[in-house]
Amino acid sequence: MSNLTKTQSLILTTGAQRADNIAMPLPEGLHGAAAKKVVTMMIDCGWLEEVDANTRKGEPLWRETGDGHGTTLVVTDAGLLAVGTEPVVVKTMAAVREHAAAAVIPKTPSLRTGTKQAQIINLLQRPEGASIAEIVAMTGWLPHSIRGLISGGLKKKLGLPVTSAKVENRGTVYRIA
After folding, report:
1. How many separate domains does the chain show?
2. 109 is a domain residue
3. What angle do CA 160, 162, 163 make, to 5 degrees?
4. If you average pLDDT over every residue of the chain, what do you get?
């Protein structure tokens, strides 16, 4: 065994006993700056690794990343060896995590007929396209709402190839190829 402190040994052995090798939650009484210092040192030594947490499975969070996701701590091969545990479990769990991440199939949004979104798509599919003013006249929406739908709803969520071009006397005209 390596020269580990009691706290480091406790974190690694507790994580090694779990099937998924998650080192969270940390020992009782270890929090704040002390926890950060211990974990940072263990990551630097290669004993712990910070990975994306699967909150659907209830994995405990080490920290939030600010983009709506969180991370958790996993004991690495080196961490398992430091406490005298065989690292086979870590390799198996890493393979399971990679397989699960690859198996996630994004849900394809469906178009509902008769909605204002469908009407806007029909306008944009015309050869002449549609300007914001034309869409405002048809929907009664504010221009920023229409631009938000085009950017977020049509381009990002639905993946439609919306293009825009400045046209004299019409302003910016949007089209779906």
Report:
1. 2
2. no
3. 155
4. 83
